[in-house]
Amino acid sequence: MTFDQERALDNEFVMHTYGRSQVEFVEGAGMTLKDAEGREYLDFLAGIGVCCLGHGHPAVVGAVERQATELMHVSNYFYIEHRGEVAALLSKLANDDLAGAGVLARAIAEGDAEAVRAAAAPQEGEQVWKTFFSNSGAEANECSMKLSRLYAKRCGNGGNTIVCLRGGFHGRTLETLAATMQNRLQDAFRPLPGGFVACTPNDIDELREVFAQLGGEICAVMLEPIQGESGVHPLDAAFVQEAARLVHEVGGVLISDEVQAGVFRTGKPFAIQRAGVVPDIMSLAKGIAGGVPAGACVARAEVADAFKPGDHGSTFGGSCLAVAAAESTLCELVNGGYAGKAAEVGAYMAEQLEKVPHVVEVRGAGLMLGCDLDEGAGDAHDVVTAALEAGAVINATGAHTLRFLPPLICTKENVDELAQILTSVLSC
């Protein structure tokens, strides 16, 4: 079927909830996408940060092929191969224990069950984290918020208010939309669920005032270490540290939404680790399974144990296919040293973006970067269209902001290609 035929069917039968670019991708390899007409593009969006190992990575493809042949789904009424291994690996990464994660990942890759058991076993004093598997970032955030309120009711201060940050983004369900403090996204869907209060990012004085007013009514602070959808805005380490101190002081928990910034994208396993803060709960998705839909709520064991059978569930979460993909993806990220690669190439990319015409500011960390354009550049969405025509896939989060979320396999040579394309487009 031709692109024009596909587009006509899509326009007639698919709900119009997206403003689509006029291209249909049908094939991919590494950093490259190919459209229906055979033209190739350099991918600096990675399915909005999902395809962390690029397109067609043999480790992920092989795992998915094997699992699809053996068993795709049985439901969470039963034990599932690979799920425990993935959860154990996430526990090591949540502790920022790359050495321990490396030993475990190698044992998993080698298929040595005894070595896996030994590597997964917590050492004396090691924090254990437990995982609930979901299908998406919104579901992971729903689970995180439910867990924070349940923990407060059963083990904590009894509060039910969650402090969220203006400009944040936590999902499109009604509950996660209520936590997304952006009027332009919320207004059409009011009334929204209650129990949320807004605070300005990096405003410590306002944060302290919120706690002074609400105190023990607060069961959680929920934040993104780097706000992606608002234009890649990192939180100050001091603000994150104060949020942790204040919420723990009143008996609540800190939730880190790592859906976009997590899974090695910033050069750390999880972005909040850059602030030197250990959260109580983390929400994961996007890059966790290399392109297969998957999400996870990861919590310190003492918080996670507030959940009892029947408190939460998912038909597809943690399916055979999803955990096989997650296991192969995480093992490759750990064994391949992608934390260091993301940090090094990301720093180089930031330097190169600063040299592009009309760029006035570059923000972010690792391979999660945004840049603001001056008025002379025109609308950033037009820049995205021009870049696509020139052979690069990028994204705009506003009229003057470009966002870049390339696969973590991105090289400095790929960055140079992008910089040349952007320079050409913005020099016109």
Automatic annotation (TrEMBL):
Q: Which cofactor does it need?
A: pyridoxal 5'-phosphate
Q: Which domain of life is it from?
A: Bacteria
Please give the coiled-coil regions recorded for this protein. Answer: none
Q: Is Zinc a UniProt keyword of this protein?
A: no
Gene3D superfamilies membership? Aspartate Aminotransferase, domain 1 (3.90.1150.10), Type I PLP-dependent aspartate aminotransferase-like (Major domain) (3.40.640.10)
Q: Name one GO molecular function term.
A: pyridoxal phosphate binding
**What PROSITE patterns does this protein's entry cite?**
AA_TRANSFER_CLASS_3 (PS00600)
Q: Does the keyword DNA-binding apply?
A: no
Keyword line: Aminotransferase, Pyridoxal phosphate, Transferase
Q: Which Pfam families match?
A: Aminotran_3
Sequence similarity: Belongs to the class-III pyridoxal-phosphate-dependent aminotransferase family.
Name it.
Answer: Aminotransferase class III-fold pyridoxal phosphate-dependent enzyme
Which organism's genome codes for this protein? Enorma shizhengliae
